[in-house]
Design goal:
By secondary structure, the protein is α+β, with helices and mostly antiparallel strands. It contains 6 helices and 14 strands. The radius of gyration is 18 Å and the shape is globular. The structure holds 2-oxoglutaric acid (AKG).
C-alpha cells in the first residue's frame, strides 16, 4: 500500500486483521541513507550490551537462553566486514531504544524516523532496533500488540501465518507473554512437525524504505538477506489482551 493511501489502512487492514507492506512512508525519514553499519559503529563506541549468544533463535529459545555482554561497535564492525559469516553470530536485535540503560545512546536517532500515526486508542508503544548479519533469524512467534517493522538498511524476509494456524505450528509458551513455534520455517522437518505442511505461510522480502504492518497475534519470523538494520514499533491498544490457545 502506498503511504499516500494510509486512510485505507484502518478499514482494509486494521479492521480486517490483515498484514500489509507500506511503501513510500519512510521517504522523509532522516534515517534513510544515514543509518548504515558504520554510522551505528561510530555512534555506539563505548556501549557494552548483552547480546543473544547465537543467531539460531530456536536454539536461543529452547536450549541456550543466554546473552553475552559485548562491545556493540566491535560487533557491528565484524558484521560489516562479514567477519562473523558462517559462525554462530550474536544478535544486536530487540534492543529497546528508550529504556533507562539505552536512552542516552539512542537520543541522537530519536527524530530520525516517524511511524505513521494510524492506530487510534493506543495506550502505549515501544521502539526496538535490530542490527544483524546475513542469515540472522528469529523464531516464529506472536506478539500481543500491533507492529510496524521498517527496513532502513539491507533486506529482510518475513514469513507470516494467521493466528488460528497455531494448530499447525507446534507452538508453546516460553514465558508469561511469549509463545513460539518449534518449527524452523527455513528448513522445516516434516517428519517431526507433519502438520506444518498445512500452514499457509506468506513470505515477503522488505526492501529499503518499506515497512510491514504485523497485526496482533499473527505468527511471524524474520531472516536477514544481508546485513540489515530495522526499527520497529509495538503499539498497545486496550482491546488486545493476551494470547490464549
Ligand atoms: O527482525 C526480527 O528478527 C524480528 C522482528 C519482529 O519479531 C517484529 O518486528 O515483531
Amino acid at each position: 500500500m502506498d503511504a499516500r493511501l494510509l486512510e485505507r489502512f484502518w478499514p482494509e487492514f486494521y479492521a480486517r486483521n490483515i498484514p500489509v507492506v507500506v511503501t513510500g512512508g519512510m521517504d522523509e525519514w532522516a534515517a534513510m541513507g544515514m543509518w548504515t553499519p558504520s554510522y551505528f559503529r561510530d555512534l555506539l563506541v563505548g556501549m557494552e550490551h548483552p547480546l543473544r549468544e547465537t543467531d539460531d533463535e530456536i536454539e536461543y529459545a529452547f536450549v541456550n537462553h543466554t546473552k553475552r555482554v559485548m562491545s556493540v561497535s566491535d560487533y557491528i564492525d565484524a558484521l560489516d566486514k562479514e567477519l562473523l559469516e558462517g559462525s554462530r553470530q550474536p544478535y544486536f536485535g530487540n534492543i529497546p531504544i528508550a529504556s533507562p540503560d539505552t536512552t542516552c545512546w539512542f537520543a541522537p536517532i530519536r527524530d530520525h524516523f516517524a511511524f505513521p500515526d494510524v492506530l487510534r486508542d493506543r495506550v502505549g508503544e515501544e521502539l526496538r532496533l535490530w542490527i544483524g548479519g546475513r542469515g540472522q533469524r528469529s523464531t516464529i512467534h506472536n506478539d500481543s500488540n500491533h507492529g510496524f517493522n521498517a527496513q532502513v538498511y539491507g533486506r529482510k524476509t518475513f514469513v507470516l501465518f494467521p493466528p488460528e494456524e497455531h494448530q499447525y505450528l507446534y507452538t508453546m509458551r516460553i514465558s508469561d507473554d511469549t509463545w513460539v513455534s518449534q518449527v524452523e520455517w527455513a528448513d522445516p522437518d516434516l517428519s517431526v512437525h507433519p502438520e506444518y505442511s498445512k500452514a499457509t505461510g506468506m513470505e515477503v522480502t522488505l526492501e529499503v524504505g518499506e515497512m510491514l504492518y504485523i497485526p496482533a497475534f499473527w505468527w511471524h519470523s524474520a531472516r536477514a538477506e544481508s546485513v540489515a538494520i530495522n526499527i520497529n514499533i509495538w503499539i498497545f491498544t486496550p482491546d488486545i489482551g493476551k494470547w490464549i490457545q
